Amino acid sequence: MDIRPVEPADLPALVDLACTVFGPFYLDSFRPVVGETVFVNRHGDWKGDYRRHLAGVHDPANGKFAAAALVDGQVAGFAGWAVQESERHGEIDILAVHPAHRRLGLGRALLEHALDQIKATGVVEMISIGTGGDDFHAPARALYESFGFTPFPQVTYTRPI
Q1: Which end of the chain offers a freer environment for a tag, N or C, measured as fewer CB atoms within 10 Å?
Q2: Band of pLDDT at residue 156, cut at 50, 70 and 90
Q3: Region of residue 35 (left: phi > 0; alpha: psi -120 to 50; beta: else)
């Protein structure tokens, strides 16, 4: 495995990977729970949302950074993070590992890499990361807690009008 900064040519692989990783959440977890009206209005274009979001995930001039984990020359995972110097805050924005490469330490290595990069700025006093409280996100919560992150529950309610 090799971890390197994300390059513009990686964008299609990042989008495909994000859709592969998070598709089951949107289609099998979120959609059935919230119903069609909320799903369509909140995340009906979730693939497009990833396409748009990931286009700017590595933008160092604006404090956004991303790294890809390569296995056999292919993107097997990636992490994106932001550094907000004025707030002395770093935030892990996204972390995704292809299902075929899970339980092999890629997520841990990517998170470690992002944390090291954030710490290396010398301007950050705290780092945050968010994830869902549902069963789909349980492995992510376990990883983050193993790094000493403290969870704080938040509940978001949605409903159709």
Answers
A1: C
A2: confident
A3: left
Q: Which amino acid, one-letter code, is at 86?
A: S
Contacts of 136 (CB under 8 A, 6+ apart): 24, 25, 28, 29
Buried b or exposed e, range 84-109, using 16+ CB within 10 angstroms: eeeeebbbbbbbbbbeebeeeebbeb
Q: H/E element holding 118?
A: helix 106-120
Over residues 85-98, the pLDDT tens digits come to 999 999 999 999 99
Percent of the chain predicted with pLDDT > 90? 92
And the tokens for 92?
């892990």
- Please state, in angstroms and rounded to a whole number, the distance separating the CA atoms of residues 138 and 87: 29
Tens digits of residue pLDDT in 92-136 = 999 999 999 999 999 999 999 999 999 999 999 999 999 999 999
Place of tokens 């390197």: 4
